[in-house]
């Protein structure tokens, strides 16, 4: 059974950094384009970043470009999101997603607060 499990969220001050991980199992991780999404309180879920199957191509939402970096380790079946220069408005639950199969993780909470 396919599973995506996010980790690495927590409380961080503005300007700080966090690295999220998403452990994949139950499917051939290396064969799938992967994405990160986030959902802030009282807002709709929004796309954050996409990475190609081999990691050679990435795309970012404008609000995070230059601050966030998506990457993957296909040998370890793990997706990452490095988040730097965090802002209050980055507070959200972050989800990893395999769009072609409709797989979602349960999310990890990032709280940017002073």
Radius of gyration, whole Å: 13 Å
Number of DSSP E strands: 11
Estimate the helix proportion, in percent. under 10%
Number of H- or I-type helical stretches? 0
| Average of per-residue pLDDT values | 97
Secondary-structure-based class equals mainly beta
- SSE string: EEEEEEEEEEE
The dominant shape is: globular
Report the span from N to C terminus. Answer: 40 Å
User: Which percent range describes the beta-strand content?
Assistant: over 45%
Question: Sheet bearing the most strands, described?
Answer: 7 strands, mixed
Low-confidence stretches: none
Structural summary, described in words:
With 114 residues, this protein is mainly beta. Helices cover 0% and strands 50% of the residues. It contains no helices and eleven strands. Strands 2, 4, 5, 6, 9, 10 and 11 form a seven-stranded mixed beta sheet that branches. Strands 1-3-8-7 form a four-stranded antiparallel beta sheet, with no helix packed on it. The chain is globular. The protein starts with a strand and ends with a strand. 30% of the residues are buried. The model has no long low-confidence stretch (mean pLDDT 97).
List the helices and strands and how they pair.
Blueprint lengths: L2 E5 L2 E3 L5 E8 L8 E6 L6 E6 L6 E3 L7 E6 L4 E6 L8 E7 L4 E2 L3 E5 L2
Parallel strand pairs: 2-11
Antiparallel strand pairs: 1-3, 3-8, 4-5, 4-9, 5-6, 7-8, 9-10, 9-11
Please give a quick description of this structure.
The protein is an all-beta fold and 114 residues long. The chain has strands at residues 3-7, 10-12, 18-25, 34-39, 46-51, 58-60, 68-73, 78-83, 92-98, 103-104, 108-112.
């Amino acid at each position: 059974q396919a599973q995506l499990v996010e980790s690495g969220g927590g409380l961080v001050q503005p300007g700080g950094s966090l690295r999220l991980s998403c452990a994949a199992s139950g499917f051939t991780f290396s064969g799938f384009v992967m994405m990160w999404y986030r959902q802030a309180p009282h807002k709709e879920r929004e796309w954050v970043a996409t990475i190609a199957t081999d990691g050679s191509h990435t795309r970012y939402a404008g609000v995070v470009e230059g601050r966030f970096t998506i990457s993957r380790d296909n040998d370890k079946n793990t997706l990452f999101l490095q988040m730097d220069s965090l802002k209050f408005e980055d507070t959200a639950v972050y989800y990893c997603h395999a769009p072609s199969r409709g797989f979602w993780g349960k999310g990890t909470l990032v709280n940017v607060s002073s």
